[in-house]
Specification:
By secondary structure, this protein is of the alpha+beta class. The chain has two domains: 175 residues, Creatinase/prolidase N-terminal domain (Creatine Amidinohydrolase, Chain A, domain 1), CATH 3.40.350; 262 residues, Creatine Amidinohydrolase (Alpha-Beta Complex), CATH 3.90.230.10. The strands form seven sheets. Strands 6-5-4-1-7-8 form a six-stranded mixed sheet, with helices on both faces. Strands 9-12-13 form a three-stranded antiparallel sheet. Strands 10-11-14 form a three-stranded antiparallel sheet. Helix 8 crosses helix 9 and helix 10 packs antiparallel against helix 11. The protein is elongated, with a radius of gyration of 25 Å. Bound molecules: manganese (II) ion. Manganese (II) ion (MN) binds next to loops.
C-alpha cells in the first residue's frame, strides 16, 4: 500500500484562486473593496513557532500560503485590481527559515497586478480605500490586523471628506463562505485525493492493530501513510480503544488496545488545504463479539441511510433525520429506550447514546464554512456541496439501566459524501466498513 503512493506536487493550482477573485470582484463592483490578511504565525516556545498553516479563506482566494501577507481586491483601481502586500525577500531569513516569494515572485507567480512590501500597507491603504463605498473584510481571522484596519478607516474619516473612505463595512466571511460551500470539479478532485490517502491510513491502522498495541502507535501508522503521500493530518487524530471510544474528542491516544476492545479511529489527511475526515470502528483482536456486532450493525445501517438521503434538493437536515430514525429504531429494539420512534425523537431520549449531529460540511476546514440554514430553514442540498455522514452510538461505563455487556462500547462510522446530480458520491468507500469486510482485512494482518 505504501509503495503505490506517488510523489505529489505541492504547488496550488492558481487558476482556481484567479476564478474566485473574479467572482468576488463581481460582488464588490467598482464601489467595493476587499481586504484580508493571512492568519498570524503562532509561537510554540522561545524561537520555535507552530508549523504555519494559511487560513482557508486567504488560501482559497490567493493560493499563497506564506504568513505576513495582506490581499486587496479593488476592482478598477489604477494600480491594478489584485494587490498583495507580503514579506520581501531576505537572504538571511531565507537561509534560516525558508524561501519567500517576495513582491516580484507574488506578481510573477501568483497573479498579483501589483505587489508591495508588507511594511507599505499603512502608507498605501488610504489611497486604495478612497472613494470606495463599501469595505469587505474578514472577521475573527486576524483580530489584531482587523482592529488596526478599522482604526485606520476611522482615522481617514476624521480627516474629513477629502479622503472619502468607505461608509459601510461588510463581513467578507459570509460572501467567501458561501462560495466555499459549493466545490468546483478541481476542488472535488483534491478532496478525492485527501479521502483516498485518509482511507489508506485507516486500512494501515486496521492492519497494524492487535491487543497490546498502543493507541498512539495506530495514530503514528495513519500519520506515516499521510506523510508518505506528502500530506499532513487535517485535525488531531482520535484513536480510542474500549471506553475511550465514548469520549468524542479523545486525543490522548495513550492507552493500550485490550483483547475484546473495539477501537474507534477518527482521522483524515489534508491535501493542498482540503481535508479528509473518516471514522471507522473495528475490533482490536480482529473479530467482533455478538454484542459489538449488534450495536455496530445499527450504526452502519444509520450511516447508509444518511448517505442515501444525500440528494439534490433534500433539506440539509435530511441525512441526520434519516440516520436518526435508524438509530432510534435500533435503540428501541435493544430496549435502551422506550416509546415509539416519534416520541423518542421528540423527547430526545436517544441523546445519552447519540449526542452529536450526523453531518458537517467538509472542505478546506474539516468543519467547513457555509450556513446550514437560511431564514431559519434548512437549506436544500445542492451539487458540489460536500458533507460527512457520521452517526454513532456510545455506551459509557456505568450507563444506568443498560446491560453491562454493552458498557464501554463506542462506535462511529463516518464517510465523506459529495452531492451530485446523479446521487451521493462517497469519497471514502475504500475503507472497509461492513463487519465481514473488516474481519476479512484484519484476518490478513501480518501477525505471527
Ligand atoms: Mn467529522
Amino acid at each position: 500500500m505504501i509503495s503505490d503512493v506517488s510523489h505529489l506536487d505541492h504547488a496550488d493550482d492558481l487558476a482556481g484562486p484567479a476564478r474566485r477573485r473574479a467572482a468576488l470582484a463581481a460582488v464588490l463592483g467598482r464601489d467595493g473593496i476587499a481586504v484580508l490578511a493571512a492568519t498570524p504565525e503562532r509561537n510554540r516556545n522561545n524561537d520555535v513557532d507552530y508549523p504555519y498553516r494559511a487560513n482557508s479563506d486567504f488560501r482559497y482566494l490567493t493560493g499563497f500560503v506564506e504568513p505576513s501577507a495582506i490581499a486587496v481586491l479593488a476592482p478598477g483601481a489604477e494600480i491594478g485590481e489584485y494587490i498583495v502586500f507580503c514579506r520581501e525577500r531576505d537572504p538571511a531569513a531565507e537561509t534560516w527559515i525558508g524561501k519567500r516569494a517576495g513582491t516580484e515572485g507574488v506578481a510573477r507567480e501568483y497573479g498579483a497586478d501589483a505587489a508591495f512590501p508588507i511594511d507599505e500597507f499603512e502608507a498605501r491603504i488610504g489611497d486604495l480605500l478612497a472613494r470606495r463605498k463599501t469595505l469587505y473584510t474578514t472577521q475573527g481571522i486576524n483580530p489584531e490586523f482587523e482592529t488596526q484596519l478599522l482604526a485606520r478607516l476611522n482615522g481617514l474619516r476624521a480627516r474629513g471628506r477629502h479622503a472619502e473612505p468607505p461608509e459601510t463595512i461588510v463581513s467578507l466571511n459570509s460572501v467567501v463562505h458561501e462560495m466555499r460551500l459549493i466545490k468546483d470539479a478541481d476542488e472535488i478532485a483534491l478532496m478525492r485525493q485527501a479521502a483516498a490517502t485518509s482511507a489508506a491510513g485507516h486500512i494501515a491502522a486496521m492492519q497494524a492493530a492487535e491487543p497490546g498495541v498502543m493507541e498512539y502507535q495506530l495514530e503514528a501508522t495513519l500519520h506515516y501513510v499521510y506523510g508518505l503521500a506528502g500530506m499532513h493530518w487535517a485535525y488531531p487524530t482520535i484513536v480510542g480503544a474500549g471506553a475511550n471510544g465514548c469520549i468524542l474528542h479523545y486525543i490522548e491516544n495513550a492507552a493500550p488496545l485490550a483483547d475484546g476492545d473495539l477501537v474507534l479511529i477518527d482521522s483524515g489527511a489534508e491535501y493542498r488545504g482540503y481535508a479528509g475526515d473518516i471514522t471507522r470502528t473495528f475490533p482490536a483482536n480482529g473479530r467482533f463479539s455478538d454484542v459489538q456486532r449488534r450495536l455496530y450493525d445499527i450504526v452502519l445501517a444509520a450511516n447508509e441511510a444518511g448517505i442515501a438521503a444525500c440528494t439534490v434538493g433534500a433539506p440539509a437536515s435530511a441525512p441526520h433525520q434519516a440516520a436518526l430514525a435508524v438509530l432510534v429504531d435500533g435503540l428501541i429494539a435493544l430496549g435502551f429506550v422506550t416509546g415509539d420512534r416519534q416520541t423518542v425523537i421528540e423527547n430526545e431520549r436517544y441523546k445519552p447514546f447519540f449526542m452529536h449531529g450526523t453531518s458537517h460540511w467538509l472542505g478546506m476546514d474539516v468543519h467547513d464554512v457555509g450556513a446550514y440554514k437560511k431564514d431559519g430553514e434548512w437549506r436544500p442540498l445542492a451539487a458540489g456541496m460536500v458533507l460527512t455522514i457520521e452517526p454513532g452510538l456510545y455506551v459509557p461505563p456505568g450507563s444506568e439501566g443498560i446491560d453491562e455487556a454493552y458498557w464501554g462500547i463506542g462506535i462511529r462510522v463516518e464517510d465523506d459524501v459529495v452531492i451530485t446530480d446523479d446521487g451521493p458520491e462517497v469519497l471514502t468507500g475504500d475503507v472497509p466498513k461492513t463487519p465481514d469486510r473488516i474481519e476479512a482485512l484484519m484476518a490478513s494482518n501480518a501477525r505471527s
